[in-house]
Specification:
single chain; alpha+beta; Alpha-Beta Plaits
Length: 114
């Protein structure tokens, strides 16, 4: 079992969800987060005043999958989240081992709980 965490652009969320559904991945958790990477923020103008935005809004996806779904999940995120404009800021995918999963309602453990 693996826990896949992806940080993506908010405007790409629906495309990623669509790609995940095509690959039969239906369970995910979505959180609004802020951060920065190589971009280090951006400059915006509001009511004629320029200001620096240091933390950019992103979306964090957390998806627990059995081993056979790791590649389809990653492929779906890549297909849906990539902008193709060559600029930085499309996001990152992190893959971590998932030691245990327990379904609270039934007490099931492991692969069947996912």
């Amino acid at each position: 079992m693996k826990l896949i965490v992806a940080i993506i652009r908010p405007e790409k969320l629906e495309e990623v969800k669509s790609e995940l559904t095509k690959n039969e991945i239906f369970r995910l958790t979505v959180s609004d987060v802020q951060g920065y990477g190589q971009q280090k923020g951006k400059t915006e103008v509001f009511r004629g005043h320029e200001y620096q935005v240091n933390l950019l809004r992103k979306v964090k996806l957390e998806i627990a999958v059995n081993d056979e779904f790791v590649k389809p999940t990653i492929d779906a995120i890549l297909a849906g989240a990539k902008t193709g404009d060559g600029k930085i800021g499309d996001g990152k995918i992190f893959i971590m081992p998932l030691e245990e999963c327990i379904r609270i309602r039934t007490g099931e453990r492991g692969k069947t709980a996912i």
